[in-house]
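To the structural biology subgroup,

Please find below the input and predicted structure for Glucosidase, which we are adding to the shared reference set this quarter. The sequence is reproduced verbatim from the submission form. If anyone notices a discrepancy with their own records, reply to this email rather than editing the shared folder directly, so we keep one authoritative version.
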Amino acid sequence: MVFLGNKAGYGRYISTTFQDLHTTRTSNWLNMMVYIVSDCDAVAIIHDDQGYVKEPEDVVDVLKAGMDLNCGSYLLEYTKSAVAHKNLSTTEIDRALHNLFSVRMRLGLLNGDPKKQAFGDIVPNVVCSKEHQQLALEAERSGLVPMRILLDITLSFLSTPLDNCHFRRAM
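Predicted structure (tokenized):
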């Protein structure tokens, strides 16, 4: 799975340009079996916060750039209108859906009754148990140092001091 987001730390955004979208779409790594998803609300940010495109329907260019799934509701709200205005072809939607469902099939998510699958007997109160929450907290704490190093590198590249970033704690 490949993640393409436009957030650099919390509250900091990297602008997306047409060249970025074109380069992403034509890169050699796209010949691999990858699945491109957005950060939550990253697609909405292109219009709402960055003002990169004039109309919300223009944001669907992310599908043309190769994105398969939007974590958020922006595509749900504007894709139909973009197709009606001929800003997006159904071929691009079909490509994204093909990738989405082929990944789900490879994961076995469409193999009959989910409760009869490998992890089908795990119920929500087990997933959210105190033991699992503690394990998630330990994983977060052990990842803070590598993340801080990565953010130092990323933010120094962007000429943004790390001290100006805000970190959100999971617990």
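Summary notes: The chain is about 45% helix and 5% strand. The radius of gyration is 19 Å.

Regards,
Lab coordination
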